[in-house]
Structure formats: C-alpha cells, structure tokens
Amino acid sequence: MLPAPSADAFAHSQRVAAHLRSLIVEAGGWLPFSRFMEAALYAPGLGYYAAGSTKFGAAGDFVTAPEMTPLFGRTLAHAIAPVLAETGGDVLELGAGSGRLAADLLGELERLGALPARYRILEPSPDLRQRQQNTLARDCPQLAARVQWLDALPAHFRGVMLGNEVLDALPVELVHWTDAGPMAHGVTVEGEQFGWQDRAIADPVLRARAEALDLAPGYVSEINLAADALIASLADALERGLILLIDYGFVAAEYYHPQRHMGTLRAHYRHHALDDPFHLPGLCDLTAHVDFSAVAHAGMAAGLTLAGYTSQASFLLNGGLTELLMQTPPEDAAAYLPQANAAQRLVSPAEMGELFKVIGLTKGDVAPLAAFARGDRQYTL
C-alpha cells in the first residue's frame, strides 16, 4: 500500500498534471516521452527537482550513497586527489543533490592536503541549490567560500567532473519495436488521464539507433540521447582531467536483453519503485537505468579516452573504503556498526555493489586511476 500524499502535495501534483496536459494539447495531442519526463522533473516551480518536496534520505523518495555514509565521499576523494594534483584543477559536480557528497569530498580533500581552489556545482534547481548551501555552511563552513554554483558548464575546465546518479535522471526517449519497425512511444491525454500512443520516429539519429538494436516486436525500452549530448558537452569543456560518472545500469547486451523487454523506466515514490510513470506527477522521481556502452561510445566519439569501467564495489574497495572504515575502532560499536552496515550496502552484490557502476573518461595526460586497478570491465562495453 503506497503512502497517501498530503492535501498540499496532492494539490501540487494536480497542478503538475494540468501543466503536462497543456503541453500535450499544445503539441497537437502527442508528446515524446522525453519531453513529458523533462517537464515532470524540471518544469520551473512544478517539476520534481524544481519544487520543494523532500527527495533524499529516509523522509524522501530514495536514498543515495552519500546520504548513507560519509565513507562514500571520502573514498571518492582519495580516488580523485591524484588527478587534482596532476592537473592543478578544480572539481565540478553535476547535480549535487542535498550537498552531502560535496561536504564529504571537501572535508576529506582538506585532510589529504589536496583541496582544489574551487569546488563548482552545476545545479539547475533553485530549491536544491539552497539545500546544498545550507549543508555546506553547516558541515564545512571553513570551506564554503571555495564553492561556486554555476548555471551552465564553463567554457574551459581542468580537473575532475563528477556525477553521482545524474545520468539516470536525464529525460529518455521511449521506443516500441513493432512488426512495422521501431516507433516512438509517446504520451497522449485521455480525458484527465495520460495514455500511450506510438508514432513514427521523426529524429533520424533516434531512428538509426533504434533500428541498429533490431529488437523483437513488442519490446519497449529507452534510448538516452540526452546522455550522449551531455557527454559531448562535458568533453568540449574539459581541457585536461577526468569525468567520473556513477550510476545504476548495464552494458548494452544486458540493457537490451530479451528478458528486459519492458525497459527500465521507473517512478520512485516514498522508497517504492513503480512501473507507472504517470503516478502522481511532480511527486515521483522518474528514472531509467544507464546504458554504459552508449556512454563509453559517446565519450570516445567526443575525443575522450576510456579510463575504466567497473562495479561500484570494485571501485570503492580499490579506492580504500575498507581502510577508511577501519579508522573508526570496531570496539566503538555505536560509531562503527552503522558505518560498517552502510559500507556493506555500498559494496554488497545484493544491494548497490553490483547494480551501480563507475565509468571514467579522461582528456589529456592523466595517470591511470588506482580505483580501476582491479576488476576493470572495459572489455564488456
């Protein structure tokens, strides 16, 4: 049984639904799913990430790795510190959530004597930007002056670009493979309800990608052209350094496996994963798993070098997660056990350790990352 929204939350969802219906009507009665998803998540003042509901942590709709334990951010700090030293560059975090990862990264980089001159955050949501500022002012006030919020990518950047659970929140194209070939799976309005309708694929790039997959009739899945565009933009801005992306997903052979014939699109509401992306618009996060093969190909097409691809478990264990955990004495059970339990969730194959992957893309002269030293799965891409 799903928890019922408050009266205010339900009224907000009704406003979001009305906005979505108006977009569909204005577009002639049919909207590509990518535009529906973009508006549901990012419409100013209305979308899930643009309005004021609690999203992260136990009181929200999902828990991200930085919310679980500072060990995640501290381990990432050890992984990227050599790149910051090599390039003399900054950190640019894409979509910094609650600001928890930024605070943990900065704190550990300070302990390592590896602080960048600036920690930049590209955050489109005014609501989340305010939360990030509050988190950093509370948890590392001595470092808050180093943090700079951006409205757009810088034209030139050196250092580390970091995205934790960013790619999964990009609007995806939905495709329905039929006897007549692949079709765009879009959204219509039926009374007050949303419904599905197929139309011919107008975008030649999307059509070529869908035809190349050659999936069986009846198969429905996602193609993330927005991820390709983001990777190309990051590559264009990066002069020398590392792009490090962490998310849940698969290589193409697993992503488009015959058994995954209904795709990976999900709505997340109060720690429940739902198959219905039309449930309570504006109150649900909409996500799709990441096709890491496509991410790697987009990076290489943009002139980047594939530095590594592995499971989150391998990356964190190679990066020193266990050693950082042991800095808390096991004898201090009250302090140690919560951290040990959280670390176990990060690396367990039954939890986040296997589903979440880490991909690294570099530009210029950058030494190999120790966190990719063992368990690299580049060959699977």
UniProtKB/TrEMBL annotation:
GO terms of molecular function: methyltransferase activity
GO biological process: methylation
EC class of the enzyme, as a word: transferase
Residues in coiled coil: none
UniProt keyword annotation of Flavoprotein present: no
Keywords for the protein's UniProt record, in alphabetical order: Methyltransferase, Transferase
Domain of life: Bacteria
The UniProt record lists the keyword Methyltransferase: yes
Pfam families: Methyltransf_28 (PF02636)
PANTHER family with a match to the protein in the record: PROTEIN ARGININE METHYLTRANSFERASE NDUFAF7, MITOCHONDRIAL
Name by which UniProt lists this protein: SAM-dependent methyltransferase
Species whose genome carries this gene: Thiobacillus sedimenti
